[in-house]
Amino acid sequence: MTDTTAGHVAIIGGGLVGSGWSIVFARAGEAVKIYDSNPAIRDSVLDTIRGQLSDLKECGLIDDADAIMGAISVHDTMADAMTGAAYVQESVLERTDVKTEVSAEISACLGAGTIVGSSTSGIPGSAFTENLPNRDQFLVAHPVNPPYLAPIVEIVPTPWTKKDTVDTAIALMRKVGQSPVLVRREIEGFLLNRLSSPSPAIRKQRFPSKASST
To answer: pLDDT band at 3, cuts 50/70/90?
Structure first.
């Protein structure tokens, strides 16, 4: 199993999901390096995180917001954020073409022992990693948003993800206070989305109309 203590965590995509993941990892004592291709997000993400931490402290859910902020830094290039990383959490736009492009960029910077989790909420990892030379280091790590409040995270391997990659991702998520759920194969919507938004047939069974119940 890869040693997740051997490097920092890189967050690729600094939107609400990426900033939420940053808090999860930094709160657990991990060094976090954020990169986003949008300069406006790079300029604002620390303020976003600071506001989220302020809310958490006001609710009594954290003690030292400054210590968490001190573990997080923002970088101007993906290479700077990823060099020496033990784990990469990709949290970019939920579009297959965008994830395909960003995954190729991540792949080019990826160390031999580094693994990548995608925050995709429904796109199977095989749809955007198939042509990568190191595709066995990629999987889906789908959180409930925000992940620092709802600790469930789905771990979904692709058909070519190494078992070591899966084991390492699960161990890391447990280490940082998440509750990983292993989905052993890719299915549409994974599990969380299927439970929260069941198919029309299931909804009809659970909530029959007045016409069908008479």
So the answer is: low
Residue 80 lies in a domain: yes
DSSP category for residue 137:
G
Q: Which residues contact 213 (CB under 8 A, 6 or more apart)?
A: none
**Which residue's entry shows tokens 């970088």?**
75
The β-bridge relationship of strands 138-143 and 152-157 is antiparallel
From CA 207, how far away is CA 86, in angstroms rounded? 46
Can you read off the two tokens belonging to residue 15?
A: 């939107």
**CB 69, CB 46: distance < 8 Å:** yes
Range of the domain at 118: 8-189
Kindly compute the dihedral angle of the four CA atoms of residues 72, 73, 77, 79, in this order, to the nearest 10 degrees: -60
Query: Which of 22, 82, 9 lies closest to 52, judged by CA?
Result: 22
How confident is the model at residue 127, as a pLDDT? 95
Specify the pTM.
0.86
For residue 140, give the H/E element and its range. strand 138-143
Cα-to-chain-centroid distance, residue 38: 18
- Residue 96 tokens read as 């297959």
Average pLDDT over residues 30-35: 98
The total number of structural domains in the chain stands at 1
**Radius of gyration for the alpha carbons in the chain, expressed in angstroms and rounded:** 18
User: What is the CATH classification number for the domain harbouring 50?
Assistant: 3.40.50.720
Confirm whether 153 is domain-assigned.
yes
Q: Across residues 122-129, what is the average pLDDT?
A: 94
